Amino acid sequence: MELKVVVIRLLKSPLGLLVLGLSMVLACIAVFVGHLPVLVVLPLFCIIALIDILVLIQTKAGIQSVVAETNRERQERDARILGGIAAARKRLSLLRLPEGPVKTAIDRLIYVGGLYLEETVKGKDRDPLVEDAILSSLEIVDEYIHRLDIMKNEDRFTDKGSDRASETELTAHTAEILQRSVDEVYRRLEVLQEEKQHIASGDLLS
Question: pTM value?
Answer without folding.
Answer: 0.65
